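Revision sheet: structure tokens.
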Amino acid sequence: MASQNTSTASKKLPLISIVIYILTLISAILYFAFTQSPTFADWFNSNISNIGRRLMAWISCWFPFSGAELLFFLIIPIIVLLSVIGWKHFCNSNRDALTYVGILLSGLCVVGILFVWNFAAGYYASTLDKKLGLEREKSSANDLYQTAELLADELRELSPAITFLPSGESVMPYSIDEMNAKLLDAYDSLSEKYSFIDNFYSRVKPIMLSEPLSYTHITGIYTFFTGEANINVNFPDYTVPYTAAHELAHQRGIAREDEANFVAFLVCMESEDPYIRYSACLSVYEYVISALRSADKSLYSQSYSALPYDVRAEESAYSRFFEKYRKNVVANVSNSINHSYLQSQGAPAGSKSYNMVVDLAVAYYRPQFD
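Predicted:
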């Protein structure tokens, strides 16, 4: 009896794809459990997800470049390669074509599995105000004004230690690697105060395409599928330490944007370095003063006009920088995608949730109000 020609034999879904689909089902069940129980989400985020995040961060630290950015460059060649493989080896029948589609989909499922096991629980864990013992409530105009004043006091103390260019921009006095080391020291110190703050060695990754990325208004991004905290280094220096601390917060399981913003503030303020503290104070001041402007223009003008001249010059310089990127289709599309993603993860405010750091800042400073 003649043996069957292997070139025409029907292809079967490989075992690895079957295993991936089983893990996908388990992941879907886990995700549902997160949405139903903050207690379970807390436990999973602190005891299971942190292992995956640490492992991914450790692997990514071996490469000085951003693996996520490399994947972006390779996406078209990968698509072409997969198309060629499909055409050469899976075109004998419709069944073979469906098998190949099943293999490709299992590959995409890996991304979903990594998301659920390494990051998703943070969106449904107990809120940061509860972990910090803060009373978070709706902020009045006076609350915003007093918070802005306390932040402005910090800026007045810090600005003499900052180097400003004649054009108004401040200058970060060290490299990205040195900044990274200072932030990790601050995370180490903060983790001793709050047990939910994970601490381990990692490195932020400057994005090579930072200038084009600026048109999307993205200053940084944590890529859970590579475990990397990526930062846009095209933006003015004063934004970089705070942005890096924000992405490092995501890397440590702080998923919600307002909470990552506030953890970044706490981390930077834990640092002994004046520029890192300045970065955090000015960044959060901008959120608070923007909310105050909407609530009470008179109090806004009173607060902003009292800022040190150098700080106001920094703000003017930023406005000039950002004008080039302010309005474009790419930014609108990017914001819409991010808005929809955040809403899908239990944040009704979507991309506006970044601004909700204001309520956390007010709750934090309220005990110091007059």
